[in-house]
Design brief:
The structure is a single chain. The protein is of the alpha+beta class. The protein has 25 helices and 39 strands. The strands form twelve sheets. Strands 11, 12, 13, 14, 20 and 21 form a six-stranded mixed sheet that branches. It has a six-stranded mixed sheet with strand order 28-27-22-23-24-29, sandwiched between helices. A hairpin with a 4-residue loop joins strand 11 and strand 12 (about 335-340). Helix 23 (about 700-725) packs across helix 24. The longest helix has 28 residues, at about 700-725. It starts with a strand and ends with a strand.
Length: about 950
């Protein structure tokens, strides 16, 4: 049984409290206060919505009396009560001897004596009527227009009231004022009668506010004296005043409707509040083919329970019946994240993530979810997140991600810039990088490097995965239990494992607790192929590659993304032999590399750095600072210009936004005739400088882009040469290598032209200029209209599913050295101003390599991640070459310094002679060095 109709909803006390529900009708009404105030505010603001019961009732009743409440002075209520806008309150004016209300009192009688009389006569449980002040009383003696009661000589008729003497209060006593005397008359008289007065707080010109206050005071307009809905409104707004509504206690239809609305909204707005996902249709609670997971409570463990009576029967759905037989692939990107899924057939579909309203027209950017978070109220979010094991009651208004956070960051002022986090993946990939999380309410969390994070620490990657899980697993999509995650080729195994663990915890957190703890534990997140290898599989399929028999298709992938560029090299072939009989194809990737700072966003930051540097004189005068680019060095005057402050970061981001159309080659972008760009920048004191002109040379920027991208292309071909030199196949012997461009940044015209240039150079070097050794393939997604097809960005996620365990493609990764990836660096020395490599990525772990003599106490170690450094032609002064100065604890003219690799980023060095080193006999203890 997948669904069932229920009339009662069983919840634990804590769950009921978190949802704002209660089995007690009175407690439920108490929980409606915020809703009621919202609907009252909507009424006053002129809104209309038939789905909001209180608002609808208010509008219906007000439409009957609107003209009276808008009248110049008087509004008539039942029981001879009249609102007098001139006096800012109500009078009770009755015919003499009707009930003894207007009993005469002597001049100077005590106020409390008169008050006691009028209240005991009126018996009004809503209000405390009083003796009017003299200023208010004079209003009733100045009737300049027709009154809704008998009057004479601009005052209440003495014949009707029974006396010309009317009482007013002054301190603790009452005094009689003659109706014919003016306000300045000091004369007082005996035997005055009291006209009870009830002050109003609302503005007398705000008809709707007066109407609402009348309801709170239990006053019924004469025109609504038999209106059942109005009586229900009095009960709704005064339910806590039990004595007052006793006579009307059966008039609870508005409250019942509000409770129904509360329960319905709790169910339909559940994910809207959490993740800005569009509210579910009410049909989900009515259709037996649909149903809501939250109403299915069989799997919940509960000691103390509350049974909520549902105003109307609703349909509950077993969440287990919503589990898809499928798999989800997540390409967790530096700048954006892509999700695709496959259900019960071979078709793969992209999933819209970070876009709450799925009824909107589908746009390509819906499939690319910005990897960014905005911390609005960290304390509230963390408290809510920790209070419930699964699907906690977090709020989107406290912490946002994706398009919402990105748009907010681009429009924020510098004072809030640090409350955004857009370097989540960079933090994870850097073993030494700490992180400061700043909330807009003032909370600051200092986090250690990602690998040192404990289960109790705030984990941004887990939180990001939690939000992804909410978008993936909901009543629109069903539930997925099998996930594959991609990684850059340069990520070490411990980092990959911790990211997997973080994603698994976050996605599990997003699942409904009604699924049951045992079922939730079945969810798995596994490591997939590397990002470029996954893209290669998608490209092979898209271009109809079909190797047969012994045919080997050689490939290289240039994955030029937003943050970094990854390379991957390998072979695509048909599966062979008994060990591979379950597969159709095998992809063997035996070479990998990358360019850490070659990414679209990094290029924008590089352009911004150079533009700022060009305008350094103007910036120094204005006190405006900017961020240092990681590949650039300090320059003259940079002491006052380079900073890591949020103003500097915001300035860099603003200029990047302004330069984006230039980098993305928008047709409608151009620098103005004065060769300048005008943007708003913030100085170090937080003062904004609007329309600040920056001189920009387009040709210089184009050359800068071309030079930096060309360096990345050169790195690619050097990495390719190294990869094939260490494989069974030599580059000179290979007939053709297919080069696939991937990543959004590969769409740049610079990339294609530079690759064509370097392919020609490679062919010339190999000596086969007539027939090229290389074939270049543009990024996927040329057909912009077919947004469900893989693109240069989404192709990675598609490839993850193609290479999934249980699929028909086997992935062999020869980039892994034992339990971890290969060494990340090229180590060497400075020879005649050039970097000369001694240790490279292909060296095995834990094997000693002779490096330099031990005759001096100090030596310098040069290192680089760039494959071009392997050529021996890179200048030692190049930005990509780093240096470590090492001091030995002893010297020996007959010994050597030996180096061995112990991890992808760590080495050890030791002093030994050439014979003893083979026996692991050293002259000192091996020293460890993290690069």
């Amino acid at each position: 049984m997948d669904t069932k109709i229920i009339s009662q909803w069983t919840l634990s006390n804590k769950e009921a409290q978190q949802k704002g529900l209660d089995s007690s009708f009175g407690n439920m009404v108490a929980n409606l206060d915020a809703t009621m105030q919202e609907e009252i505010a909507a009424f006053i603001n002129g809104q209309a919505n038939k789905n909001k019961p209180l608002l609808n009732a208010l509008n219906l009743c007000y439409s009957v009396v609107e003209s009276e409440f808008k009248a110049a002075r008087w509004v008539s209520f039942e029981r001879d009560i009249f609102l007098d806008k001139s006096a800012n309150g109500c009078w009770v004016i009755r015919e003499k001897d009707s009930d003894g209300l207007h009993k005469p009192f002597p001049n100077g009688a005590r106020v409390d004596e008169v008050t006691k009389h009028i209240r005991s006569t009126l018996i009004d449980p809503f209000n405390k009527w009083k003796v009017p002040k003299k200023s208010a009383l004079m209003c009733i003696h100045q009737l300049n227009e027709k009154a809704p009661f008998p009057s004479f000589n601009n005052s209440v008729s003495s014949y009707y009231l029974g006396s010309k003497i009317r009482l007013y209060s002054d301190s603790k006593n009452v005094y009689g004022h003659h109706a014919g005397n003016g306000i300045n008359s000091a004369s007082t008289y005996n035997d005055g009668v009291c006209i009870p007065f009830l002050a109003f707080k609302s503005s007398m010109t705000d008809a709707k506010a007066l109407f609402i206050e009348s309801i709170y005071k239990g006053l019924t307009p004469v025109l609504l004296n038999s209106n059942v809905i109005y009586k229900a409104l009095i009960v709704a707004l005064n339910y806590n005043n039990k004595a007052a509504v006793e006579q009307l206690k059966d008039k609870i239809q508005v409250l019942e409707q509000l409770i129904h609305q509360k329960i319905t909204n709790t169910l339909l707005l559940d994910d809207f509040i959490r993740a800005d996902i569009a509210p579910y249709q009410e049909k989900i609670l009515e259709d037996t083919e649909l149903g809501h997971w939250s109403l299915w409570t069989e799997e919940l463990d509960s000691d103390a329970e509350q049974v909520i009576d549902l105003p109307t029967p609703m349909v509950a759905r077993d969440p287990k019946s919503s589990i898809n037989d499928g798999v989800v692939a997540i390409d967790f990107g530096t700048k954006s994240t892509v999700v695709v899924y496959q259900k019960d057939n071979v078709n793969i579909h992209p999933m819209r993530i970070g876009t709450g309203d799925l009824s909107k027209d589908i746009q390509a950017h819906h499939y690319e979810n910005p990897t960014i978070m905005e911390f609005r109220d960290l304390n509230t979010f963390i408290t809510a997140y920790s209070e419930k094991a699964n699907k906690p009651y977090t709020r989107w208004q406290d912490l946002t991600i994706s398009h919402t956070a990105k748009n907010a960051m681009e429009g924020t002022d510098s004072s809030k810039f640090n409350t955004f986090l857009d370097e989540i993946k960079q933090w994870a990939g850097d073993k030494n990088r700490k992180l400061k999380v700043v909330g807009q309410q003032g909370k600051v969390i200092d986090l250690p490097p990602f690998l040192e994070l404990t289960e109790d620490d705030f984990n941004p990657i887990e939180i990001y995965a939690y939000y992804l899980g909410l978008y993936i697993n909901n009543l629109n999509n069903g539930i997925f239990m099998d996930y594959i995650l991609s990684f850059p080729v340069t990520y070490e195994m411990p980092v990959r494992d911790k990211i997997i663990e973080s994603f698994e915890r976050g996605i599990k957190k997003s699942l409904p607790s009604e699924l049951g703890a045992d079922a939730i534990e079945q969810l798995t997140v596994t490591k997939g192929a590397s990002e470029p290898a996954a893209y290669a599989l998608t490209a092979f399929k898209a271009h109809n590659f079909d190797p047969v028999d012994d045919e080997r298709i050689f490939y290289g992938v240039f994955d030029f993304g937003g943050g970094t560029t990854d390379f991957d090299f390998g072979i695509f072939r048909e599966a062979q032999g008994a060990k591979e009989r379950r597969f159709d194809y095998v992809i063997e990737h035996f070479g990998a590399g990358g360019d850490k700072f070659l990414g679209g966003e990094n290029l924008l930051e590089l352009l911004a750095f150079e533009v700022f540097k060009k305008n350094k004189v103007a910036l120094l005068e204005a006190g405006i600072q900017f961020e240092k680019h990681p590949e650039k060095d300090a320059f003259a005057g940079s002491e006052q210009l380079l900073s890591y402050s949020q103003e500097a970061k915001n300035n860099t981001k603003k200029l990047c936004i302004a330069l984006r159309p230039f980098w993305e080659e928008h047709d409608d972008f151009s620098i103005d005739s004065s060769d300048s760009l005008s943007i708003t920048l913030t100085d170090s004191s937080g003062i904004q400088h609007s329309a600040f002109n920056l001189v920009v040379d387009e040709e210089e920027l184009r050359q800068l882009l071309s030079d930096r991208i060309e360096r990345g292309v050169e790195n690619f071909f050097d990495a390719l040469r190294l990869a094939f030199s260490h494989s069974e196949a030599q580059l000179n012997d290979i007939e053709n290598v297919n080069i696939f461009l991937a990543g959004n940044s590969s769409q740049s015209s610079f990339v294609t032209s530079l690759f064509k240039k370097h392919i020609a150079l490679q062919d010339e070097e190999i000596g086969t200029e007539e027939q090229s050794h290389f074939e270049l393939f543009a990024p996927l997604g040329a057909d912009k209209k077919n947004i469900e097809k893989p693109t240069g960005k989404t192709g990675v996620a598609f490839g993850l599913i193609e290479s999934r365990e249980g699929g028909n493609i086997k992935v062999i990764d020869r980039n892994v050295n034992g339990e971890d990836i290969r060494f990340k660096y090229y180590l060497g020395e400075n020879r005649k101003g050039k970097f000369k490599p001694i240790v490279d990525r292909e060296n095995k772990f834990n094997e000693w390599i002779e490096f330099i003599d031990a005759g001096y106490q100090k030596f310098e170690l040069y290192y680089s991640e760039q494959p071009t450094s392997s050529t021996g032609n890179v200048l030692a002064a190049d930005d990509s070459i780093k240096k470590k100065s090492i001091k030995l604890d002893l010297t020996d003219d007959d010994a050597m310094v030996f180096i061995r690799i112990t991890s992808p980023t760590q080495i050890e060095y030791v002093i030994a002679d050439e014979v003893d080193i083979k026996k692991n006999i050293y002259l000192n203890e091996p020293q460890s060095l993290e690069l």
